[in-house]
Design a protein that fits this description.
Length: 323
């Protein structure tokens, strides 16, 4: 192995640049060269590949998003598209790959490895924190702090106008962001996909006998909650409690942007460096994660199909603190 290709794929996440920087500098430290593949699998197919060295990744650790860009590629889902990608990697002398992304990105790397035998290592890059094989994903810490800052600001208005605010955060299939933000933000409810009784808890909150006198409330909902998003929940709550003044706020993609937190920069740097070491040691078709502060390797199959869920104790904690 002489040259590594690194790319970001799927949704962007704060800390991806820090991970690329760590891959490049660790590779250079060990006498390897690196190519950056722009726009993920789409860049492989269209030969959008650039040289990376120590200087080209300077001054990016603090930047959000991904300077390599990211895209979803329908062509890579076809054998013909993957053949083009392989030919371009071969032309550029790329011997191994580091993929920074989520489940879809892992799936592409797994199939590519099976068809062409190119060693691939995956790094968990998503704000949702829903990838199996790591306690935290790159971008998650920044996302929850961004959402928390917004909720703190919304709370000022909720208090001033004596309103109930329903705040929708990201989390298509998981409630990690919503649950942590609800606890840290002092919310009176958290609606997440993993808790089928969450709506009942919200109703219980408003109906609780002897409920402490409070003129406003914050309810946090994950966008993937089966009860619906903020606008649907606002309508349902208004029908049950017509006297309440209710407003909805959808934070949306603001949670993906911004300078990565210190924790995300350190996590991404650690994982990026470990990915290069894993390739040097001959590992392939695994993801690199951190579990209980120790480096962990998870086969692609398990990382893709394994189920990661929120801690039930955290669900209970949110309910206790909401009284």
């Amino acid at each position: 192995m002489k040259r590594i290709g690194v790319y970001t794929s799927g949704g962007d996440a704060p800390g991806m640049n820090a991970a690329v920087r760590a891959v490049v500098r660790t590779a250079v430290y060990h006498g390897l060269s690196v190519k950056g593949i722009k726009r993920g699998y789409e860049g492989m197919i269209h030969d959008d590949i650039i040289d990376l060295d120590r200087q080209s990744v300077a001054n990016i650790i603090q930047r959000g998003g991904t300077f390599l860009k990211t895209a979803r590629s329908k062509d890579f889902m076809t054998p013909e598209g993957r053949k083009k990608a392989y030919d371009n990697l071969h032309k550029n002398g790329i011997d191994a790959l580091v993929c920074i992304g989520g489940n879809g990105s892992y799936t592409g790397a797994k199939i590519f490895n099976e068809e062409y035998g190119i060693p691939c290592i995956g790094l968990p890059g998503t704000i949702d924190n829903d990838l199996y094989g790591t306690d935290y994903t790159i971008g998650y810490d920044t996302a929850i702090n961004t959402a928390l800052d917004s909720i703190d600001r919304i709370r000022d208005t909720a208090h001033s106008h004596e309103r109930v605010f329903i705040v929708e955060v990201m989390g298509r299939d998981s409630g990690f962001i919503a649950l942590d933000v609800a606890i840290a933000g002092g919310a009176e409810g958290a609606l997440i996909p993993e808790d089928i009784s969450d709506w009942d808890k919200v109703i219980k909150h408003f109906n609780r006998p002897g409920k402490r006198k409070k003129s406003f409330s914050i309810i946090v909902v994950a966008e993937g909650d089966e009860q619906g998003g903020a606008l649907i929940l606002e309508k349902r709550l208004a029908e049950l409690y017509p006297d309440l003044k209710i407003r909805s706020t959808i934070l949306g993609h603001v949670q993906r942007g911004g300078s990565p937190s210190a924790r995300d920069r350190i996590l991404a740097s650690r994982l990026g460096s470990e990915a290069v070491k894993a390739l040097i040691e001959g590992k392939t078709s695994v993801t690199v994660g951190i579990i209980s502060d120790e480096v962990s390797y998870t086969p692609f199959d398990l990382a893709i199909n394994g189920k990661k869920s929120v801690n039930p104790a955290m669900i209970e904690l949110a309910e206790i603190l909401a009284i």
